[in-house]
Amino acid sequence: MYSAPFASRMAPHRQPAGVYHQVGVQTAVSGASPHQLVALLFDGYFAAVQRARHAIQQGDTAAKNRAISHAVRIIDEGLKASLNLTAGGKLATDLSDLYAYVCLRLTQANLRNDEKALDECRQLMQPLHEAWSAIGPRHDAANHL
């Protein structure tokens, strides 16, 4: 769905800062390498989990549902969907299983308002994020030779 930043029909719940952020995200995505796109997915995932935690603490069920749904979509439609199970072998299969488990735990966290489950999901994904970030400079340097 396209939304012009200055559209007169801007949804009432969309604040100008939110629209500005969305334009920034779209700009980052359009100029990103495949490696950077995955890094953006990880960043979005962790931000969504943090929003979910905050929403649980505030008792905001609607915000919690949106944040957790966003985190699940990032994993399912972004990270998991990009795996090549044939070429990736055991690593890709293990990652697929991990992503499925994290999605299950996120869903349970949503149903039970369970901050500990959110913490578990964050902890499970953190090493992947760190590893991906660590290979970033090497990946970028190799592609610029």
Kindly estimate the percentage of residues that lie in beta strands according to DSSP: under 5%
Q: Low-confidence runs (pLDDT<50, min 5 residues)?
A: 1-14, 17-25
**Number of helical stretches of at least 4 residues:** 5
Structural class by SSE content = mainly alpha
Q: Terminal Cα separation, in Å?
A: 38 Å
Number of separate structural domains: 1
Largest sheet: none
- In the CATH hierarchy, the architecture is Up-down Bundle
Encode the helix/strand succession as letters: HHHHH
CATH superfamily: Flagellar protein FliS
CATH class: Mainly Alpha
Please describe the topology of this protein.
Layout: H1 16-30, H2 34-58, H3 61-80, H4 89-112, H5 115-143
Helix pairs in contact: 2-3, 2-5, 3-4, 4-5
Describe what you observe in this structure.
By secondary structure, the chain is mainly α. It has one domain (34-143): Flagellar protein FliS (Four Helix Bundle (Hemerythrin (Met), subunit A)), CATH 1.20.120. 78% of the residues lie in helices and 0% in strands. It has 5 helices and no strands. The longest helix is centred in the C-terminal third of the chain and has 29 residues, at 115-143. The N and C termini lie far apart (38 Å). Residues 1-14 and 17-25 have low confidence and may be disordered.
Outline of the structure:
The chain is 78% helix and 0% strand. By secondary structure, it is mostly helical. The longest helix is centred in the C-terminal third of the chain and has 29 residues, at 115-143.
